[in-house]
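Re: the request from the purification team.
They wanted to know what the chain is likely to look like in 3D before they choose a buffer screen. I agreed to run a prediction and write the result into the notebook, where they can find it.
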Amino acid sequence: MGAVENVKEIADLIGKFHDIELNRRILKLEEEVLDLSREKRRAEEKLEELERTLKFKGELVFKEPFYWLGTDQTPYCPVCWESEHKAVHVHFNNSHNAIQYWVCLNCEAQFSARGLPVRG
């Protein structure tokens, strides 16, 4: 049985005594336990997010001018990743004279590169 259920069970038992002040204190305790439960869940979610980011960071490889992930054929914006740890794909814009032009739709950074996978 969890803390929330225990507090509710105690509140039900105390309710039988018809002590208004005791009931108020139990209700306050119940609210505090619920708040702590919500805070714990938020902390667990944040931890999961940080673990995913750490795993992702460990798998990213920098090959100038972009970051690459495994077999993903679309690179990630180095500006977004290095400034905000935000993984944003850059978009192929066009190519001219064997130079490819890319743009990040998030930060609007523009890149040019040679020798990247041919984009259509």
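For the purification team: The longest helix spans residues 20-59.
Please add any questions underneath this entry.
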